[in-house]
């Protein structure tokens, strides 16, 4: 990894057509309105409209085995192998399942017929596969991976380090879960990044995915994490090659949260969110001293437990991890509004992304003087401060997201580095 390159890094909008192939931004893991605890707005048309504003070209369908959702996807034009078009947004078939040990697995499928075949196979081991977009299976990780591989799909762990439903909350290694079955990637989840995950030796050869796991289509959720793929064309086979790093295809950028903003980053009480050091939590037998609530082990501490090294060892193939935060949240702070869904925040967000192309460009690239002309001084100032990391972070934990705080004190801090959050590389 060339450190100088990182300092000079500029986020330029990914292009669908460039000299030797394509670069596309893809958020592969979302859930439809047919999964539990999701927005009723998780509809194809709404997602297709929101994705380009965020800067996304390709979105995972999520919930691809759900009969009604699959019907909606089937009604779209299939523009390339396994790729369906709605408006300017392409969709690829993806889904998530929960196994017998409450571990979540993420799956990418090549075709509608593969989805139907997999539904048939999984159906024998699930009571809710027709009803829940994220079905529960009475299978082990290895059995799930074998069935997915049998239909030509790709599989790997979802949000690999979270305390409730991930591989590493249950196992100490990939092999314990998947045995000899092939996996194609590992999804980092919002509370981890490559700095943390590259301390684990067994992950050196695996491609990391950074996806939003969005349950709502609004810009603080959809595309809050995504991947930039380098491909020859947008198709399932080309995506597969990128994940396996074949024929020059690969992921060239992981984009996502500063892991401290993830809601399971620190070990914390799930009722009152008091943070604990690992030793302290274990001494307290995982009961909160403040409220008696349950303490959940954070992603940071879990990764430290299974880490091979103190410091990350980035393999040659590992792309940059660009840290971002939702623009809507920065706008809300500038307007001193607590609700990011308020029409004032949403309207201004839309005005900025329409003026400058997409959200990531506003966050990272566009001159703040230009931003001030469209969105006003207060927002331009906070974006400038975001870029030089002139802010405090209240870390997330116990199910509560972290927060970026633009305090007066933070402003006084020396902050001269001019590339957001890439200075850790
Ligand atoms: Zn999940
Ligand atoms: Zn508590």
Task: Provide an overview of this structure.
- There is one protein chain.
- The protein is of the alpha/beta class and 425 residues long.
- 50% of the residues are buried.
- It has helices spanning 3-7, 44-54, 67-74, 112-123, 141-150, 167-170, 174-178, 194-197, 236-244, 278-283, 299-306, 327-335, 343-356, 359-364, 368-375, 377-387, 408-412; strands spanning 22-27, 58-60, 77-80, 83-86, 89-98, 104-109, 154-157, 186-187, 208-209, 226-231, 250-257, 268-269, 295-296, 320-324, 392-394, 403-405.
- The strands form four sheets. Strands 1, 2, 3, 4, 5, 6, 7, 10, 11 and 14 form a ten-stranded mixed sheet that branches. The protein has a two-stranded parallel sheet with strand order 8-9.
- α15 (368-375) runs antiparallel to α16 (377-387).
- Helix content is 32%, strand content 16%.
- It has 17 helices and 16 strands.
- It folds into two domains: 3-261, TIM Barrel (Alpha-Beta Barrel), CATH 3.20.20; 326-412.
- β1, α2 (44-54) and β2 form a beta-alpha-beta unit.
- The longest helix is centred in the C-terminal third of the chain and has 14 residues, at 343-356.
- The structure holds zinc ion (2 copies).
CATH architecture of the largest domain: Alpha-Beta Barrel
Write the CATH fold name of the largest domain. Answer: TIM Barrel
Indicate the mean pLDDT. 91
Q: Tell me, briefly, the overall form.
A: globular
Give start-end ranges of low-pLDDT stretches: 1-8, 410-425
Beta-strand segment tally: 16
For CATH, the homologous superfamily of the largest domain is named as Metal-dependent hydrolases
Largest sheet: 10 strands, mixed
Structural class: alpha/beta
Please estimate the helix content. Answer: 25-40%
Rg, Cα atoms, Å: 21 Å
Number of domains: 2
List the total number of helices.
17
What is the C-level CATH assignment of the largest domain?
Alpha Beta
What binds here, in terms of ligands, is: zinc ion
Note the beta-strand portion.
15-25%
Distance between the termini: 8 Å
